[in-house]
Write a structure and sequence with these properties.
Helices cover about 40% and strands about 25% of the residues. It contains 10 helices and 10 strands. Helix 3 runs parallel beside helix 6. The radius of gyration is 17 Å and the shape is globular.
Length: about 240
């Protein structure tokens, strides 16, 4: 569904990605793990059209995304839940969700999207008229995911959904990610520093280090890999 080939991205003189290649099959959850500064966020931002690659290809259902504006990428069915949630703090939960539906013109579809998001995250319905900046970190993460779902995506990219969230809510968020994948059939590319959790819920994983893919395998095998265990899973 998504194929990245030999992607190279630089920030000025600093090269962030050195020929990254990865693929995501329809209906799967694929995770990209690695330390700070490995290039995980850069990869997602480049797929989204927020950054321009120096070289390489990004194909989504066989169509090139390179050079497309971010809203055109969303129109194709690909949504991005950014790192740090980036909710509109001064807007209500309802208004934030409406921002996610800005490409939708059909009022019935928008209503159905609201119902679907509230079924997934009942807490957002309880907080519908609350200003987003007053929500807890976990609730803001639910809102960021809900906002991305309002565009009715086929493919969802999530950047560090566990960041800065209470452990109890992290478990809930990850259960919801699995639910979204299973019940709505949405393909997911997940960037996550909590490698243990990410490999637990994903089907396949890639390990990114200093802008290069150094390992790739099905998630169960990566969890048993001694290199991954010692570097990312806190074990020998």
């Amino acid at each position: 569904m998504l194929e990245i080939k030999e992607l190279a991205v630089s920030y000025g003189a600093i090269t962030a990605l050195h020929g990254v290649s990865l693929s995501v099959k329809p209906g799967s959850i694929v995770t990209l793990i690695g330390g700070n500064g490995a290039g995980k966020t850069t990869t997602l931002r480049t797929v989204s059209g927020l950054l321009k690659p120096q070289a390489g290809e990004i194909l989504y259902n066989g169509k090139s995304l390179v050079g497309l504006k971010p809203h055109r990428v969303v129109e194709l069915g690909l949504s991005h839940v950014p790192e740090g949630r980036m909710v509109f703090a001064n807007l209500t939960v309802h208004e934030n969700l409406m921002m996610g539906a800005y490409l939708q013109r059909d009022k019935n579809l928008i209503r159905a999207s609201f119902e679907s998001v509230f079924a997934t995250f009942p807490r957002l319905q309880e907080r519908e008229q609350q200003v987003a900046g007053t929500l807890s970190g976990g609730e803001q993460q639910m809102l960021a995911i809900g906002r991305a779902l309002m565009s009715r995506p086929k493919f969802l990219m999530m950047d560090e959904p566990s960041l800065g969230i209470a452990p109890l809510l992290v478990k809930t968020i990850f259960e919801k990610i699995v639910e979204i994948n299973r019940t709505q059939g949405i393909t997911i590319l997940l960037v996550e520093q909590n490698a243990n959790l990410a490999l637990e819920i994903s089907h396949f994983g890639y390990v990114l280090e200093t802008g290069k893919i150094i390992l790739s395998d099905n998630s169960a095998a990566l969890r048993q890999n001694p290199q991954v265990k010692s570097a990312y899973l806190g074990g020998g």
